[in-house]
Specification:
Cofactor: pyridoxal 5'-phosphate
Radius of gyration: 18 Å
Helix content: 40-55%
Protein name: Threonine/serine dehydratase
CATH topology of the largest domain: Rossmann fold
CATH architecture of the largest domain: 3-Layer(aba) Sandwich
Keywords: Lyase, Pyridoxal phosphate
Shape: globular
Number of helices: 14
Structural class: alpha/beta
Largest sheet: 6 strands, mixed
Family: Belongs to the serine/threonine dehydratase family.
Organism: Dyadobacter sediminis
Number of domains: 2
Length: about 325
């Protein structure tokens, strides 16, 4: 795995490598939401991506970057769902075995999808420490190649292709781009893409109040853990890594927190007004813009909808 921060040519090469296997997802808009926010919003719909989330990009790039020798014992990772599906999907594409560690309270829809791609699931308690311990045990036993869900430069380069496409597909120059933040793979990739392909665009993040580690880290200059973890946005529970944090600190303008009520309201707007199936984590960016609309008034804003893998039997509205 690369130990070098992806540069512009790396991201361009990553985009070419994964293009045959992923969707170039649409960029949509909503007159209602433009009026509500007093801004021009451009939604990059990664909820329509393969496996239902942007994670397909980073996983595919990381897996396709492995040699046959590295693939022979399979691939291992830990994830609450979307990266798990992405690695299972990517492993199937290259004919490799996938070993996935998932928290025991992962959404059923995500567990079923991982099983559907033929991966072997091991469940663990839902703490970052327990995930890491369990996956390292599997790596030790099987010799599988470990691909971290976000703290991995190949993964970050793949995630950067979301924003690269958004910049290419919007006619206007974006003043702002905003992504959700959990472990920071998407946000650091978005920040690098803006730095290389649209340097005038300011990068922001949205984060649940119930998993507010990134905003604390951003303010204190060191990786922090959230004071408490309780949020509907199950895809954003992890804290930043030593590869993602420096990129976020260097290239992101600010991080905004939002409540679960605000996340649910944004999610409902996307379902009702745009007919988009979006999971809570995927609605966090819009929630952050709505909460801070005075700051973003009159701006052209790219909003990354990160995923749509929601349990339809447990909608929060």
């Amino acid at each position: 795995m690369s130990e070098t921060v992806p540069d512009q040519s790396t991201i361009e090469a990553a985009h070419k490598l994964i293009a045959p296997f992923v969707h170039r997802t649409p960029v949509l808009s909503s007159g209602f939401l433009n009026e509500l926010c007093g801004a021009e919003l451009y939604f990059k719909c990664e909820n329509m991506q393969k496996i239902g989330a942007f994670k397909a990009r980073g996983a595919l790039h990381a897996v396709l970057s492995l040699s046959p020798e590295q693939l022979k014992n399979g691939i291992a990772t830990h994830s609450s769902g979307n990266h798990a599906q992405a690695i299972a999907f990517a492993a199937k594409r290259v004919g490799a075995k996938a070993y996935i560690v998932m928290p025991d309270n992962s959404p059923t829809v995500k567990i079923r999808a991982v099983e559907g791609y033929g991966a072997e699931i091991t469940f663990c308690k839902n703490t970052p420490e327990e995930r890491e311990r369990t996956v390292q045990q599997i790596v030790h036993e099987t010799g599988a190649a470990f691909i971290h869900p976000f703290n991995n430069y190949e993964v970050i380069a793949g995630q950067a292709t979301v924003a690269k496409e958004l910049f290419e597909d919007v006619d206007a120059k974006l003043d702002v781009i905003i992504a959700p933040v959990g472990g920071g793979g998407l946000l650091s990739g978005t920040a690098l893409a803006a730095h290389y392909f649209s340097p005038e665009t300011k990068v922001y993040a949205g984060e649940p109040e119930g998993a507010a580690d990134a905003v604390l880290s951003f303010r204190s200059d060191k990786i922090e853990k959230a004071p408490y973890v309780k949020t509907i946005a199950d895809g954003l529970l992890t804290y930043l890594g030593d590869k993602t944090f420096p990129l976020i600190k260097q290239h992101v303008t600010d991080i905004f927190t939002v409540s679960d009520v605000e996340i649910i309201n944004a999610m409902q707007y996307l379902w009702e007004r745009m007919k988009l199936v979006v999971e809570p984590s995927g609605a966090v960016s819009l929630a952050a813009v709505i909460r801070n609309k005075e700051q973003f008034a009159g701006k052209k804003i790219g909003i990354i909808i990160s995923g749509g893998n929601v349990d339809l039997g447990k909608l929060p509205f």
